[in-house]
Amino acid sequence: MPTLFDPIQLGAVLCPNRVVMAPMTRGRATRDHVPTPMMADYYAQRASAGLILTEATGISRQGLGWPFAPGIWSEEQREAWKPVVEAVHEAGGRIFCQLWHMGRVVHPSFLGGEAPVSASATTAPYKAHTYEGRQPYAEARAMRSDEIPALLHDYARAAAYAIAAGFDGVQLHAANGYLIDQFLRDGTNARDDDYGGPVDNRIRLLVEATRAIADMVGPERTAVRLSPNSETQGCRDSDPETLFGAAAAALADIGIAFLELREPGPEGTFGQSDVPPVSPTIRKVFPGPLVLNSDFDGPLAEAAVEEERADAVSFGRPFIANPDLPARLAAKAAIAPDVQATWYSQGPEGYVDYPPLDNEGA
């Protein structure tokens, strides 16, 4: 019977434990989306994770609409990631870069006033984070089918840059209401071409993007994140079990390194789910390593792995204030609280100043 602290092979990477650091936007890059030296300290501090998944990282200027979030579409960005990855490796860690296109959730202020793109002409709910403060989202325009080859090229180029920067692999962000999720769900996809309508069409962009990345860097260094929950950032599907079951089966055919699922429970911290979990269905059709995420504590994560509902568990917020989270979980020590006010601030406070367990109170 596996445990949370046993090694696991995730594609090409042997991980010393099954405590994965989930992707978390932290806003410490430059205004031009270039990684900074402080990010090297942050990730290196968390190198005891079985695997680190970076914060979501933009694949193009069109796809990135979050203040001070990093990108990986330019040579400058690629070179700035190198010392970050090197610091993690020197600390004994492993790290994948998460590749991000936000779709309709990009505010026009990031695009010189142009409309964002999505599966269809829709508008995200709530308000966008911008350099000028919170602003209402604008209506997206439907991405034309003749634009999709360039999008796939952007994903492949970002993956190549990530490997050139030293990353151990990449993860395609296909979750949380961003571009690929907008194509997946029938609540945001009203297309009548090969990318809309039946489930097989709506998963087409996910499959093509995953193949483009896998062809570039190898399926053994390619992972995917899905969020088969009821609603996220206004994205909803009428039959998530069928949709995400088909998506997972298609990803299994590609042979990706692992599949991560963000699936909040009924009392989820960042949103509730009013549909039954889809992960049991996905577990049946996806034979590769499955990583579960959202609202886990140590005992729940240990149970998920021991009962083989998951092969590993990814933790987000607990890694903010607990850089040595695997050690804390193994020791069943208290989990330190984080400070929400510094989640997206630009300085070191609340970023690299949380002490490890053995230095607390020092």
Please tell me about this protein's structure.
With 362 residues, the chain is of the alpha/beta class. It is 30% helix and 16% strand. The strands form five sheets. An eight-stranded parallel barrel has the order 3-4-6-11-12-15-16-17, surrounded by five helices. β16 (290-293), α9 and β17 form a beta-alpha-beta unit. It is globular. 51% of the residues are buried. The model is unreliable at 266-271 (pLDDT under 50).
Q: Strands, helices and their partners?
A:
Layout: E1 8-10, E2 13-15, E3 19-21, H1 37-45, E4 51-53, E5 57-58, H2 75-90, E6 95-100, E7 117-118, E8 127-130, E9 133-136, E10 141-142, H3 148-164, E11 169-173, H4 179-184, H5 199-202, H6 204-217, E12 222-226, E13 231-232, E14 235-236, H7 240-254, E15 258-262, H8 279-285, E16 290-293, H9 298-306, E17 312-315, H10 317-321, H11 325-331
Helix pairs in contact: 1-2, 3-6, 6-7
